[in-house]
Design brief:
The chain has about 260 residues and is α+β, with helices and mostly antiparallel strands. It has a single domain, classed as Penicillin V Acylase, Chain A, CATH 3.60.60.10. The protein has 5 helices and 14 strands. The strands form 2 sheets. Strands 1, 2, 10, 11, 12, 13 and 14 form a 7-stranded antiparallel sheet that branches. The longest helix is centred in the middle third of the chain and has 15 residues, at about 160-175. The chain starts with a strand and ends with a helix.
């Protein structure tokens, strides 16, 4: 996942909103989100896609209402022998609460994976673990809007971060946005000579581009809704994931998010 907007209680009608595009090499195999049963007794059920090369995932939601997403970190030294960052997301989604996840991340050796930003949120709180492969720092994300890419937290932010965040800020200044409206900023393209400066990336000549897009909204009242797009959100139609989200949540979480 290379461009992620996370909004924690950004407006009176929204508890949590997520919108993100995964930019990846075009030949890397992956499958879309599906419900996964608990990995062991007492573990949460999880809704997540799958990276078929390394066996992990780049984002997911568990039945306790915990959302987790990872981006790479630019300029971090790459060590091929290290564990897949996608496996870290899978492990994070097994944590039943944000508090347990924070403890798990605090104990994580910073050299186990190549550099990353691991973003996590519930309707109550959010945070990010920033790791360059040698050092890590666990940060609290305050209520409001946050834009995270592989270039965030001092790794070399550029035009994409500013323009996409501005799009979402404008969106939340208007009427309460529905889940479909959260998709629009992720359709933005960069200039023809700088395609990586857009949220929706077309760089076929490099064998790279936007492979999928996710939007999730948990309202203050009513059921959560979600959309998933395989491919570019500027050209492909989304699939409604709301029924899968409803089946995921257990009764306790459903009472919390309604």
């Amino acid at each position: 996942m290379c461009t992620l907007m996370l909004a924690l209680r950004p407006s009176p009608g929204t508890l949590l909103a997520v919108s993100g595009n995964r930019n990846e090499f075009l030949d890397r195999p992956a499958t879309g989100p599906r419900l996964h049963p608990p990995s062991f007794p007492g573990a949460p059920r999880v809704l997540m896609p799958r990276d078929e090369r390394a066996g992990g995932t780049w984002l997911g939601l568990n039945n306790r209402g915990l959302f987790v997403c990872v981006t790479n970190r630019r300029s971090a030294n790459l060590v091929p022998e290290r564990m897949s960052r996608g496996q870290l997301v899978v492990a994070a989604l097994q944590q039943p609460t944000v508090a347990r996840l924070r403890a798990f991340l605090a104990a994580l050796p910073p050299d186990r994976h190549n550099g990353f930003h691991l973003v996590f949120a519930s309707v109550e709180e959010a945070g990010v673990l920033v790791c360059d492969g040698a050092r890590s720092e666990l940060l609290v994300l305050a209520p409001g809007l946050h834009l995270v890419t592989e270039r965030s937290y001092g790794a070399g932010e550029g035009a994409r971060e500013k323009t996409v965040l501005a799009d979402f800020e404008a969106l939340f200044r208007g009427e309460e946005p529905g889940v479909a409206a959260l998709r629009e900023p992720m359709r933005r393209h960069g200039p023809a000579d700088a395609p990586l400066e857009g949220a929706c990336v077309h760089a076929d000549a490099r064998g790279y581009g936007t492979r999928s897009s996710l939007q999730l909204r948990v309202p203050a009242h009513g059921a959560a809704s979600a959309l998933w797009t395989d491919g570019h959100p500027c050209t492909e139609e989304p699939r409604d994931l709301s029924a899968e989200v409803a089946r995921l949540f257990d009764p306790v979480v459903r009472r919390t998010v309604r």
